[in-house]
């Protein structure tokens, strides 16, 4: 933004490798009477945030106003990761995901996070302009609604399908919330968990959904340097700057206590991984993130290890879709919304509360897409498991307990049912569909012993 002339404030510094993954807050003063703030930053050896790319610098940025930097502070104006090298905050508008509003006089802080630091270090500079007179970009036209979902196979009564993980321009996605919601509806989804990184500003842009569009589950992907976790059913930001496992666990417990449903996201290599070991405090594990072959077997094992210990944690899936307009160069992300799909038993009149309850209680299964396969697991009350598979012809059906595979068969009809005896003393069973290449196509949550 050289046309803006000399900045009103110039902040500079250097990070070395010892400071990697540790946030710092850089103070600056804002005088009275400012109505617009523009921020631009730069640094050497810039590389993408993708964990597969190393050897350079990735510097995350956020902003706190005069309201302060404490945990949960209303002074948090936003965090844009390393996606945007400049942004504007005006009284009336702001670059997503930043919050517009009064530019109060006092001490503000730039939040800098050296996610990756190059061997020769990171020299950074942040420039700030007061009242540069930038006009709000004109809004993009909305995309048209589509009803291509009309031909989807029906779900069992009371069950609906959705995606629990996606991104917009409010973090590192390429589309506006309304366009992501329209795309989710066109794909046949009936609910959408909206999970931009360290932001809740996207929730306002999404609205509540419904009325012919998917129901919006207001969420956030809490993005820390030791792992990511989703919270759905929350409208506030949660502490992401700390990487001490007890702090992360306490934050997850606080989010859960507030009524949110909390999941550990993509606990697998390059997910990014989950570095917090055995902390508790979450309801669910994202056992399927993006395309199945992207190391989701590791996430599935993370969940299964906890099931074997008797921890009643739910399995969920999320596409992690970032781009609708152009192909996503990051192969970890699903190329389309709803791949995978999470199906929940939310009853005849689904609400946000009913969907959250179904996830929390594990009344859910995950499958490859909104078209299926569908996989339902029910007890018969007499020691047998009833499995119903739809759209799974040619797949292997596995029934799995804490002891391993209890039963295996091949599905040879579009609508197939099995009644399978459960060995006495079994703690839980779950069902899984696997195709002939060995890829999982659908899996259920665990059915625990007292229901068998
Ligand atoms: Zn993530």
Characterise the protein shown here.
The chain is mainly beta and 452 residues long. It folds into 3 domains: 2-130, Jelly Rolls (Sandwich), CATH 2.60.120; 149-372, Metal-dependent hydrolases (TIM Barrel), CATH 3.20.20; 373-452, Immunoglobulins (Immunoglobulin-like, Sandwich). 11% of the residues lie in helices and 35% in strands. The protein has helices at residues 177-186, 201-206, 245-257, 296-308, 352-360; strands spanning 9-15, 24-30, 36-43, 58-64, 76-81, 86-90, 106-116, 122-130, 159-163, 191-194, 209-210, 213-224, 227-232, 261-264, 284-289, 314-318, 341-345, 364-367, 374-379, 384-390, 396-401, 404-410, 415-421, 428-434, 440-444, 447-448. It has a 15-stranded mixed β-sheet that branches. The chain has a 4-stranded antiparallel β-sheet with strand order 1-8-3-6, with no helix packed on it. It has a 4-stranded antiparallel β-sheet with strand order 2-7-4-5, with no helix packed on it. A hairpin with a 2-residue loop joins strand 21 and strand 22 (404-410). The protein is elongated. The N and C termini lie far apart (65 Å). Zinc ion (ZN) binds next to loops. The site of zinc ion has 4 residues, from loops.
């Amino acid at each position: 933004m050289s046309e803006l002339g000399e900045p009103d404030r110039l902040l500079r510094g250097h990070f070395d490798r010892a400071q990697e993954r540790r946030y710092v807050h850089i103070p600056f003063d804002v005088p009275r009477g400012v109505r617009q703030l523009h921020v631009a930053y730069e640094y050497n050896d810039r590389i993408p945030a993708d964990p597969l790319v190393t050897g350079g610098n990735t510097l995350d940025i956020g902003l706190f106003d005069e309201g302060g930097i404490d945990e949960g502070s209303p002074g948090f104006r936003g965090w844009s990761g390393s996606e945007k090298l400049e942004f504007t905050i005006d009284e009336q508008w702001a670059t997503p995901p930043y919050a517009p509003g009064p530019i109060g006089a006092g001490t503000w802080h730039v939040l800098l996070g050296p996610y990756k630091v190059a061997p020769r270090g990171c020299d950074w500079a942040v420039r700030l302009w007061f009242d540069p007179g930038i006009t709000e970009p004109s809004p993009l036209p909305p995309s048209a609604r589509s009803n291509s979902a009309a031909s989807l196979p029906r779900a069992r009564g009371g069950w609906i399908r959705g995606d629990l993980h996606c991104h917009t321009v409010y973090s590192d996605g390429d589309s506006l919330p309304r366009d992501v919601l329209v795309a989710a509806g066109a794909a046949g989804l009936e609910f959408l968990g909206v999970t931009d990184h360290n932001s809740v500003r996207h929730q306002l842009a999404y609205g509540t959904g419904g009325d012919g569009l998917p129901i919006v589950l207001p969420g956030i992907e809490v993005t820390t340097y030791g792992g990511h976790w989703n919270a759905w059913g929350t409208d506030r930001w949660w502490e992401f700057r700390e990487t001490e496992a007890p702090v992360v666990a306490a934050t997850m417990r606080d989010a859960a206590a507030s009524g949110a449903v909390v999941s550990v996201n993509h606990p697998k290599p390059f997910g990014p991984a989950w570095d917090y070991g055995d902390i508790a405090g979450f309801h669910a594990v994202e056992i399927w993130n993006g395309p199945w072959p992207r190391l989701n077997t590791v996430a599935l094992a993370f969940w299964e290890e906890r099931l074997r210990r008797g921890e009643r944690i739910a399995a969920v899936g999320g596409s992690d879709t970032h781009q609708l307009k152009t192909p996503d160069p990051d192969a970890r992300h699903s190329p389309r919304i709803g791949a995978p799909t999470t199906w929940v038993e939310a009853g005849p009149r689904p609400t946000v509360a009913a969907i959250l309850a179904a996830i929390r209680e594990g009344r859910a299964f995950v499958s490859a897409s909104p078209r299926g396969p569908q996989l339902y697991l029910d007890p018969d009350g007499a020691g047998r498991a009833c499995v119903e598979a739809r759209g799974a012809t040619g797949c292997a059906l596995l029934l799995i307990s804490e002891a391993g595979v209890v039963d295996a068969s091949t599905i040879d009809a579009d609508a197939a049912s099995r009644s399978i005896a459960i060995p006495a003393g079994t703690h839980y069973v779950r069902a899984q569909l696997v195709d002939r290449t060995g890829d999982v196509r659908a899996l259920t949550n665990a059915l625990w012993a007292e229901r068998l």
